Amino acid sequence: MTQPNQPSQPSSDDPFVDHRSMGAAGPDPLGLAEAAAGQVSSADRAHLGQLGTSAVGTEELLRVDNLSVDFPTDDGVVHAVRGVSYSLRSGEVLGIVGESGSGKSVSSMAVMGLLPRSARINGSISFRGESVLDMPPAVQRSLRGRKIAMIFQDPMTAMNPVHTVGDQLAEAVLSHELMPKRKAMARAEEALAMVGIPQPKQRLRNYPHEFSGGMRQRAMIAMAIINDPDVIIADEPTTALDVTVQAQILEKLVEVKDAIGAAIVLITHDLGVVAGMTHRVLVMYAGRAVEVGETDDIFYRTRMPYTAGLLGSIPGLDSESDGRLRPIHGSPPSLINLPSGCPFSPRCPLASELCRQEEPDLMATDVMGHVAACHHWQRLAEADDPTAFFRTESEVSK
Ligand SMILES: Nc1ncnc2c1ncn2[C@@H]1O[C@H](COP(=O)(O)OP(=O)(O)O)[C@@H](O)[C@H]1O
Ligand code: SF4
Ligand SMILES: [Mg+2]
């Protein structure tokens, strides 16, 4: 049974919209702000663990529309990002999840205006309704760090080893605002205290290498929040750290976000990290968004086999209790010569002839506000445990 009994759901060009406001009629590309009213209900929040009582507002801060990024190289054009769209509302935490090389960093570097000149960027990015790509470089620079701040994976490359943590934090303030250094240092101390660094006044005088990995990552968060940004893009902010420290730092990040009233884009290759941390999740594969929905729906009403595969590979989330992790076999396709059809088809246990011929667009599913790029999403809707598709395959192949 490979043909889904699919209702004539319109394929959505506007997958990032919370479709809870669409009704049965299908996408409502212009209902963006209204869609924001589909914010996480208090019942939903009960599932969101650490997000506590934080509310998602109605104001759209960041909007990425049909973003594509190509890199011409000697080997051919790398199609790193292929038509990604999302929106981020005030107070919201959006997770962007996908394997290494799926275009997560490139899409956020585009938002930050940090891509190399060789990059060919198409589509639009707007911050509070203003087009970022059309801003003069000086305006883009002032947006960066002040209104949109980024936290990188490796603080050792993002921090300068020859300056103290205090000087670097103060410099982050002074590059956007004129004030006496003493006052900037006071802000730096306050920021270190906010991210949970003990004895912040003394710590200002330390060099980055005198901090532990976890403390350095906290200092990076302090750097990101010091100018009171509206949006924080955290690109695999805790990947290098052990699991306990990761959890503490992400919890702190969400706590600080609430204190300063920011929204977060949390990028990770680990779907497990976004549970309890995000309101919504966008799953990326081969440069595209392949599933977008409320976090609970991504976990409990999965409609895309790739996401199901990721779920099956998270420790402790596998619904069969043998505790074995099942990585998805194979590797992502080359972004220079993409195969025809669905880019996941070579690895997908549900792949059919249709899948090998036609790349599916994101389409509405039976779950309101939840879109998936899969011809056969209905088979996941019918399955008790979508991760079992991967299990069956691995058992059969033994
Ligand atoms: N400057 C560049 N030139 C050519 N290819 C690049 C460049 N930067 C990134 N890429 C490619 O774009 C793809 C997406 O990369 P990236 O966004 O960093 O992935 P990730 O999801 O791991 O963050 C990868 O195939 C990567 O090799
Ligand atoms: S469209 Fe892609 S993900 Fe969906 S069943 Fe076909 S190959 Fe799998
Ligand atoms: Mg990356």
How would you explain this protein's 3D organization?
This protein has 398 residues and is of the alpha/beta class. It has 2 domains: 59-278, Rossmann fold; 311-396, no CATH class. It has 16 helices and 12 strands. The strands form 2 sheets. Strands 6-7-8-3-9-10-12-11 form an 8-stranded mixed beta sheet, sandwiched between helices. A hairpin with a 2-residue loop joins strand 1 and strand 2 (76-89). Helix 9 packs parallel to helix 10. The radius of gyration is 21 Å and the shape is globular. Residues 1-49 have low confidence and may be disordered. Bound molecules: adenosine-5'-diphosphate, iron/sulfur cluster (SF4) and magnesium ion. The site of adenosine-5'-diphosphate has 14 residues, from strand 1, strand 2 and helix 3.
